[in-house]
Amino acid sequence: MQDGSLTDVRVVPASFGPLRGASGNARVTGPCGDTMEFWIHVEHGRIVRTTFTTDGCGHSTLAGSACARLAENETLEEAMRIGQEDVLAAVGGLPEESHHCALLAANTLKQAVVDYSRRQTRREEKAEPEACSRSRERDNLGAQTARPEEGPHESEERQALKRRLGHIQHKMLVLSGKGGVGKSTLAVNLAVSLLLAGKRVGLLDVDLHGPSVPRMLKLEGASVEVRDGAILPVVKAGLKVMSIGFLLSDPNGAVIWRGPMKARVIEQFLRDVEWGDLDYLVIDSPPGTGDEPLSVCQLVDDADGAVIVTTPQDVATANVRRSVRFCQDLHLSVLGVVENMSGFVCPACRAVTPVFGSGGGERMALEMGVPFLGRIPLDPALTKAGDEGFPFSYHYGWSETGHAMERVIAPLLALPERPSRGEDIEERRSK
Ligand code: ADP
C-alpha cells in the first residue's frame, strides 16, 4: 500500500460524506451486504468533485476513497471505465476477501454517472415536451395495430404484453440445445455483470421444469408481491428477478404441465410482470427447441437476439446446430455461441486441462456464420457459487474463470442502441 493517509482507516478521508448540490448520486448494496453511496458533481462534462459514504469495513472506506480520487477531473466516459482493478491498484492492493469492496466502489460510481445522465435526459425532455410526446405516440403506434388473424381479446393481450415489455431497451434470450449445459449459470452471471456495469437489469427465469435462478441467487422462498393486477419482481442488490419458481408451491417438485397450459403460463408470466424501465432484460429460456422456447421467442418478438450456450460434448451432437437454425427460422439474431465447461480448472494450481476437448464451439459457430463469444472452463468455484447462491461474477471477478466470463459478456454489454421498436419488428416480419 502506498498512501499513508489511505491505509490508516481511522482517518476519515476528506471525500467521505454527502455532497450538497451534487448532480449525480447512487446508493448500491453489494451482495456482501455493504452499502456504498457516491455523489458526483459534473461541470462541462467532467467530474469536478466526488464524495462517498459506506457502512462497510475499513477496506470499503479505502476503496471508496480511492475510487472517488480516481473519478475526479475525469470525463463521464472515463469514469464509466474505472473498474475493480483500477481501484485495487489505486489502493495499492487489498486482501483477496476484500476485492469486492473495490468492485462495489467502481459500480456505485458508475451508477452515480448513470443517475447524472438520467437527470440530464429528464432536463432535456422537459425542455422539449412536444417533441417527446410525438415520439411516444409513434412508439405506441405499432402496439395498437391489430393483426388480421387476431380476435379482439388476443389483440388486447398482445398489446398488454407489448406495453409491459415496451419499457425495456434490450432483451436477450439465453438458449441451449439441452439442459445442464450452464444456461442458467450464464444468464445469472450475464445479468449480474450488466448490473455491475451500471445498467438497470431484470432477470426472467421461464424454465418451467427446472427454474434454478432462485437457488443461484439465494432467493428460494422469496414471496412475490402483486399490485394492481401485476406481479412485481423480487429485487436483490438492485437486480430485478422473476422466476416461475417463485410461483410454484414446491419449486423442487416435478410439475406436470400439459402442452397448451405451458404456452399459456409462459404468456401470462411474460405479460403480468411489471418490470418498469430497464436497460436489459435477460431471459433464461426453457432448454431445447420445442414448444416452450418457441413460445418465449414468439412472444418476445423484438428481442436483440439469443445467446446459445453449449458444452464441448454438445458441439459433437446436432443440438447446437439445431438451436442456431431454430433462431434463424424465427428471424432471431444469434448474438453468439458460448462454449461452457471447456477444460477443467484445477482447484489447487488453477491450471486448465481440456478434459472434453475444446474449440469445437468456435469451429461450429464459424461454419454456421454466427459469432463465437468465447469459452468458460469447468471450475468447481462456479459450481459452488451456483449451489450456495452467490453470483460468481461478483465474488470471483478477479479469477481466470471470472475474466473468461467477462470476455464472453463484453460484446453483449456493447449492444448498439435499438431502433424505434415498431420499425424493428415490422422490418423483421417483412424479411
Ligand atoms: P442449465 O441451465 O443449462 O440446465 P445450469 O446453469 O443449471 O444448467 O448448470 C448446471 C450445473 O452445472 C449447476 O450446478 C451449475 O452450477 C454447474 N455449472 C455450470 N457451468 C459451470 C462451469 N463452467 N463450471 C462448473 N460448474 C458449472
Description:
- It contains 18 helices and 14 strands.
- The protein is α/β, with parallel strands linked by helices and 431 residues long.
- The strands form three sheets. Strands 4, 5, 8, 9, 10, 11, 12, 13 and 14 form a nine-stranded mixed sheet that branches. The protein has a three-stranded antiparallel sheet with strand order 1-2-3, with helices on one face. It has a two-stranded antiparallel ribbon with strand order 6-7.
- The radius of gyration is 23 Å and the shape is globular.
- The chain starts with a helix and ends with a helix.
Distinct ligands: adenosine-5'-diphosphate
The helix/strand class is alpha/beta
Give me the CATH fold name of the largest domain: Rossmann fold
CATH superfamily of the largest domain: P-loop containing nucleotide triphosphate hydrolases
Q: How much helix, percentage-wise, in residues?
A: 40-55%
The global form is: globular
Note poorly predicted spans. 1-10, 130-145, 420-431
**Radius of gyration using CA atoms only:** 23 Å
Number of domains: 2
Specify the CATH architecture of the largest domain: 3-Layer(aba) Sandwich
Mean pLDDT: 80
Query: What's the total helix number?
Result: 18
Assembly type of the chains comes to: single chain
**What's the count of strands?**
14
